[in-house]
Design a protein that fits this description.
- The chain contains 19 helices and 23 strands.
- The protein folds into 3 domains: 165 residues, SH3 type barrels; 103 residues, MgtE N-terminal domain-like (MgtE N-terminal fold, Alpha Horseshoe); 131 residues, Roll (CBS-domain), CATH 3.10.580.10.
- The protein has 433 residues and is an alpha+beta fold.
- Helix 14 links the parallel strand 18 and strand 19.
- The strands form 6 sheets. Strands 1, 3, 4, 5, 6, 7, 8 and 9 form an 8-stranded mixed beta sheet that branches.
- Helices cover 35% and strands 24% of the residues.
Amino acid sequence: MLFINEMFISQLLKKPVIDRSGEKIGHITDIVIEIGGLYPKVTGFEVGTFVQKYIINHQTVDVINKRILSLKFLKDDIYKRELREHEIYLQKDLLDKQIVDTYGCKVVRINDLKLANFEGDIRLVAVDIGLKGLLRRLGIESPVVRFAGLFGNEISENIISWDYMEPLETELSRVKLTVPHEKVSRLHPADIADIMSQLNVKEQVAIIKSLDHETAAEALGEVEPEMQAAIMETLEGEHASDILEEMAVDEAADLLGELSKEKARELLGLMDEAEAEEVQELLEYDEETAGGLMTTEFIALPAFLTADQTINQLRELAPEAETIYYLYVVDQSEKLVGVVSLRDMIVSPADTPLLDIMIKKVISVEHDTPQKQVADIIAKYNLLAVPVVDEERKIIGIVTVDDVIDLIYPAGRQRKPSRYGAMADYRAAAEGR
């Protein structure tokens, strides 16, 4: 097949199709590609006549350019077929549709599609999302570009390689994409959240369904509560509960608090019993207090453990804890008696008891402390987390800086919490400064 090195689909649509004798048999109404691979291969051309439309195989084509599509066979010898499995149309399924740009982490609209010779085939290699693509389809690209140039303006191209693109629809031309949103799933959860914020609920749910449960949980943790609720209300119960189990306990409780009572009750019933109990306990606290903000994922260790024994314990406990920069020390009655930084513990001799490393004057809050007061304490002492205690001073949870970041750092404030510097604030408090 003779094909110019590269062309846009807008330059091919409506062009006449002739057979080997030169007789016109129709015009190009669409182009067919096979989904899969880095750059999808063109496998056919849809030919339109006054009475019908049909697809011809790409092997049937002899010459294709911006003026004509010429076939190798006579009209009566041409094999006509329908769309096959794993094939889609470029115009019907992609042109003017929204698509995910995984490089820019945004949703864009396709104004034109670029084809090129690649590894001996015609392949879809890029999409045009800029003004030039629209002008090209209207047939006025050249005059408009020249006119703009008279005034020193340049209409630049905005073309993105197809390997960064991923269609939003999972159903195209009766064909289900074999690996929907595979490219999106490799992005950072915050980038996935940015993309989801540009979509409707149906599209958001489709993306969440395509992710593994852990990634879905992390992505949901990055979006607004209203969006979280809309997605979870739409998801099937088993799928939604599996995602909840991957979330931090406090995040799961916050999300359930946004749902209808019926949906929240359904999901709690489907969750692992132990995790559901933890979430239920958090739901009983007023959301405007420390109890409503806290997570129960923290590490509390007995004071008699040595530094070496603590490190061994951390290897087992750390995956379940939200933060391990602070280790909380408890006595035999499980009362909070001290706090140790991860750094201080690591640099201490292996046989040193936590009792000799810990800071004994621990800054803490009670479960009914107002959230603004909790935020003020975290900001004042530059903490990554503050423990929450009950009436008997037993630690029941922690509030992390992430939970109150909007209250601590309004626009214009630049101070950031230090991973290790907070221990100096603990020491200052202990010394009465």
